[in-house]
Structure formats: C-alpha cells, structure tokens
Predict the 3D structure of the following.
Amino acid sequence: MGERANIRDVAALAGVAVKTVSRVLNDHPYVSTKMREKVEAAMTELNFHPSVAARVLAGTKSGQVALIYDNHSPHYMHQIMMGCWDRCNAEGLRLIAQPVDVADPKIGEQVRGMVRETHVDGVILSSPVTDCAAVLNTLEALNMPFVRISPGTNHALTSSVFMDDVQAADDMTTHMINAGHRRIGFIIGHENHLASKDRLSGYCRALERAGIAYAADLVEPGEFDFDSGKAAAEKFLNLPNPPTAIFASNDDMASGVLAVAHRYHVPVPEMLSVAGFDDTTLAQVVWPPLTTIRQPVRDLADTATQLLLGDGGLEHRRLPHELITRESIAAPRTKMLTLRKKTENQ
Amino acid sequence: MGERANIRDVAALAGVAVKTVSRVLNDHPYVSTKMREKVEAAMTELNFHPSVAARVLAGTKSGQVALIYDNHSPHYMHQIMMGCWDRCNAEGLRLIAQPVDVADPKIGEQVRGMVRETHVDGVILSSPVTDCAAVLNTLEALNMPFVRISPGTNHALTSSVFMDDVQAADDMTTHMINAGHRRIGFIIGHENHLASKDRLSGYCRALERAGIAYAADLVEPGEFDFDSGKAAAEKFLNLPNPPTAIFASNDDMASGVLAVAHRYHVPVPEMLSVAGFDDTTLAQVVWPPLTTIRQPVRDLADTATQLLLGDGGLEHRRLPHELITRESIAAPRTKMLTLRKKTENQ
DNA sequence: CTGTTAGCGCATTCAA
DNA sequence: TTGAATGCGCTAACAG
C-alpha cells in the first residue's frame, strides 16, 4: 500500500510504452481510445499519481502558479485565494500562495529565489505587491509571465485586472451628496496601496462637480484598519463643525467610525451617515449595515488567473463595481451634533 | 540573466566537487569553513537557487508540508495559515495550503493524489478535516506523518494540538451566571465541527453545577455564520419568556445576535447580554464589543507545525484559552423585554 | 498513432 | 573531510 507506482509500472501493466502513458497523462491528442483506456485502467489499479517534481524536472512547464501577496485583510485575501484556486483547479494547476513583506528591502531577492526554486510557470500579484518595483523588475528580468490584480499604477504596462476606484469613490460621494450631505468626511486608505490615491481622487472629483469646496479638516489619513478608522472618527466628531457623513476608504475603517459613533451616542444614520468600501462581510455584520462599494474581488482573481494562462498577450481588463445601498446612510439633520461619551465598562 | 545556474556550475566556479556544494546546501556537518565560504561565494555570484523539484526527486524528503483545510472563516484560516507559515519559514520549509471539501465523497482520493503528487513530508489538518475518516485513513495508509489542529475527537489517537472547548464554554456560561443571568440562550456551532458538541457540553455542565435546569427552548442550532446567529436570535427574542443573555458558539453568530437586537431596539448589554467565542477581529469591531473566548489559534498552528517536524512521537498538547471581557455583558434587568421592530430602509 | 533513448538537477550510495 | 558515479520519475526529441 505504501509503495508508489511509477510511470514504468503503469506502462508494463498496460502493455504499452512509457511514452504512451506520458501522452495520456498530458492529454496529448494522438492517442487511440483503446490505448487510453488500457492506460487509465492500469493507473487506477496501481493507484498511480504522477510526481510533480519529476514532471517539473523533465518538462518545460511545471503546472504551478504562484500567488504573491502582502495584504492583511483576511476577507479580501480569502476571496482572492479562492478565486485563483478555483480557476487553477479547473485547469489542473497547483496554486502556491506566498505571503511576502513589501517593506523588506530584499523582497526582490526573495521573490526571485522562490520563483526559481519552485519553477512556477507564472505569477499572480495582489496589491500592494503589484506596485513593488523590486518585484516587477525581478519578474521581468526572469522573463516570468505575471498578472497584476488591482495595481495602483500603470494598468496598461503589464497584464492586469482592476476596477475603477476613482469612479467608485466618485459614485459613493455623489450618492451622499444626493442624499443632501455637504460636509462629508473622508478617510484615506493605507499609503502602500495606490488605490488609496484613486479613492481620494474620486471623492474630490465628486465634490468639485457638485461645487462643494474641499475642506482639509474633513480628510484624515488611515491605514485600512479598524483602529485608524476610530482615530479619524474621533477627530471628525470633535470638530467645531463636524461632518454629517463620513466616507471611509474601506469597511474596516468604516466599522471603526461606527464604533466611535456608538460610544458617543451619535445615532447612525440619523445624525451621522457612514459609508465603506469593498463590501467585505464586515459591511453586513456591523450595525447599521454599511452602504459600501462592492469590488468584484473574486472575479478579479478569476480573471487574472485566466489572463495568466491565456495567450500571453498584454491584456488589461476593467471589471464593474457596484454601489450597495444599506442602512448606514440617510438624509442629514440640521440639528447640531453634541457629544456625550459613554463610560467604558470593565 | 535568464539562464539558471545549477549545482555543477557552482561547483565548477568554486573549484570543488558537486557533492561539496550539495553538502553546503544541506548544512551537512563535515564541511570545512574554507570550502563553505568558497561555495557560498559562488552561489551568490551565480545567483544560484536549488531546484526544489530536483531535490525532491533525488532525495528522501521534500522540505514541503501541506496544510489541508475546509474552513470558511477567513479570520480563523488566516491565523492558522500565518502560524504554520511562520514556523515553516523559520525551518526552511515550504507550506502548501490546500482547501478541500469534506463533504466530497472522493476526498480520500483527492488527498492521496495531492500528497503523492507533491511529495510532502507531512500534513497539517485543520478542523473539520481533522475528523474526516477518509482523510485520516488515507494518511495512515500512506504512512504519512500528520498533526491535527483542534480535532473534535480522539485527541490522543494521533499527534494533535487543541484547546479545552468544554472548559472554555463552561467558563463563559459561569461568567454569565455569576453576572446574575439565569435564562441563558445558547447557539450551537456547525455540526461538521466536533468542537460544537464540546461547547454545548460546557454550557450544560456550567448550568448543572449552578443548579439551573436545562431548557430546550433556550438552545438553538447554528452554522457558525452570521445568518444562523440572526435566525436563532429571532427565535429567542420572540419567546414568551426570552433569555436575558445569549451565548453563541462563535463570534459570527454572536454578531448576528447583535444585529437582531439592534433591529428590535433591544439595548445591549442593558437588556440583553451577548457572548461570542473565538475572539476573531469581529468581536472588537461590532457594537458593543463582544465578551468572548480567545482561542490561541496562531499558537495552535505554530505548535502543530513544530510537532510535525519533531521526533515523530505521538504527542498531544493542550493550549490555554482566555476569557476576554468586553462590553457586551452586564447584570440582567428584571424588566420584561418588549419588541418594537425597526422598519427596514431601502 | 506508437516506441526508444537521453537527460532535467540534485542526493545518495560508495570509495578515497 | 572530500569526490565520482548512479538514478530518482518523467518529458522531449527523434524515429518507426
């Protein structure tokens, strides 16, 4: 039971040449049905599973694809992984997920080592690795095919899939303006992610079109996490003239805003509207559920994988986003906001 | 730049035998410092990276470990992966994460194929794959070392790491009882996960010790997700004599309870206490933050990986849990709960 | 459509 | 402490 059969054992049992077995394994066109059946029967009987290592060593392609990422949002990465995974599975490829640290100065080295060691046929890059020059240069020097998922810059430079972050942020801001808001706070995303800049641009564009002046005190930096959302919200709510709505560049930060609002007894959305971005599961789990932008993450991953496996031509695809309306946004009240902080338990 | 150097190139440049390079690569003890330095210099100069495939094919072990999982909680899996990943990285191993479907009748076949194809040296199983007989039998038949993370049953049967789910649920229930609660609703976890049974046992044990009769209408099934938490909460709150506290078997379901409470204007924790389990990031992001059990997920993953790499002896380790107190629990009010459902927007 | 042979890059015998 | 030969399991030419 523990002994592993190899391709020669299969060939012997089926009474054919080794090469014929190899052809069956690789779905080679010129194999007669009779041969194929004999071989397949032998493979089943011997419980044969081809060694990836041997195929890599002997062949020109490995059937392996790497997904390189440095994203600390479990939800987002889960979707990316599953999207890539399903597509790879359907194509009979193995996916190797590889976390890295974009801040590491030796990241180029690391990626090169990993790519060479594993003999992957191609690489999928997830933001913000998509915009890491060291990695891009390394892959190009190795002449390794790669696709970028939601790169922050130079979409057209390499194959990539992405959504229109500027337009999406514009849509959300416009949605808030249409609800009657004039003072809309904005929390910027993590600076490593170039999408953060795009989202800010969309916010500005919508304000400008509506003839609302940009107010520096209504824009706070953030890091795509809960705590930075809370920090920004604290600042906004303590302003002499606080915003009636806050648009955070992702759902985690929007959740932070909600937590602060709850602590200060500011009713959402009656006194303060809140919007997120990404439509992670968070958006539906917090209270009230967040109006947010659905980024087609899984589709992006799936499409990226397809592009990688495609003809190798330079291709970039834009996938549509969607504004998801939930209960966190309402028309603004005119009444002034007063803060009454809840005492913390424990 | 694109040509890859092999071990012979390195040997030639360093002026040593191929075998010497191999020894350096594998940290073999008997190599003189001078030799080692020459070889390392050559490796750097040639930008040499050993082919995993070749090492696998020629050697007896592959330096690869598989993590097999079927868990749909992104938070949980993220921590598991990172725990395994860091440890593997420290030991110079490659981690291959492999999602599977425990409901698939051919899962045994799939796992065998995957294990044989990749030549992994060992396997880490995450719940509920830990309790999938087909997988366990396959691995044993292959004589493949494996460790289970939080198996639901037979801890001692194979190497495994886990926490005491019974005790943890007992702790939480006792905590609620000590706060004055007598009618405590309980939401069971997904039936695929055997930890669900343990958590229910702990709940029952605490009630019994406190002399509180088990009430069938205070125990609802769940599936570890937000929606089943909501469904259970709806039932509880519409009971003639609703509970003053609800203990959900994980944070996702507890979040569902909070959402329902908010919709019905039931103040938490003033009118209803809520507890979760797992201490995912959810627990801190929802309002009010959840009192919950911190499962040392990352430590479990790390420890599991260590056990796998250890001497191969059968070993099982229990790691300590922790009850995290946050604002979702307070002493119960005597006043009766009345429901006033909020009209849904949109 | 099918078979024969060489060799991918490394670790593993053995021998020195 | 170092080196020379053999082969892991498979695919790629080339031949039939």
About this structure: Residues 16-20, 23, 30-32, 35, 54, 56-59 of chain B lie near DNA strand D (CB under 10 Å from a C1'). The CA atoms of residues 202 and 281 of chain B lie 24 Å apart.
